[in-house]
Design a protein that fits this description.
mainly alpha, elongated, two-stranded antiparallel ribbon, 2 strands, about 240 residues
Length: about 240
Amino acid sequence: MKSVLAPLKAESLKEVFISRFEDLILSGKLAIGQKLPPERELALQLGVSRPVVHEGLLELSVKGLVTMKPRVGTVVNDYRKEGSLAILESLFNFRRGSLDPQLLRSLLEMRIPIEKETTKLAALNRTDEHVKAFHEIVAAEEAADPHDIDEVTRLDFDFHHLVTLSSGNLIYPLLINSFKPVYTFLTSIFFSDPEVVPVTASFHRRLTEAIEAGDTGKAISTMSEILAHGEEHLLKMVARMERR
């Protein structure tokens, strides 16, 4: 244990503590079911204060990486069983931006039923305010510089988030917000090809019109086209990126 717990030196010690233990757990250097040393001992080994250790462990616990048991101590979890959506960003950070094929495929597969369902509900439940907001986002997308990846990525997230808001379901907007960093990371790769920007804006205008008309069938079929186009092009861009 001591060999992998060299003292920490950084301005944000808690964040470095969290990152260190995420790497140790996700890499398997700390085994599932392994009990960590007491907080006081960890603080001494790492050269940080006990509050840094305690707050770091609390955040790891929220992500499902560890369980803090009273009178027992902190135990390493199997993150695949205990982890929450909060761990998604950690998985990408652990891989230093490289994309694990299974993780990417899982994200793309998960997106299909959620986006199709929220689209159907949006066509049924949208308000005039939602419709106005859709048109404003699409107009901004059509006017955006295709080479401004940050802007088009932001607008794309705002559009899909608005679909969840328009659904009338209170949970879907929270769900998409919970993996916003991962979502925007992937869409920034997608939009690194400026040619897809006007195509995406065109799709979004069609979807907006279907939602405004309350046409659930057309809305779902348009979202299906958006997802298929997005997946196909994203996989191409990822493959191109990894060949570099």
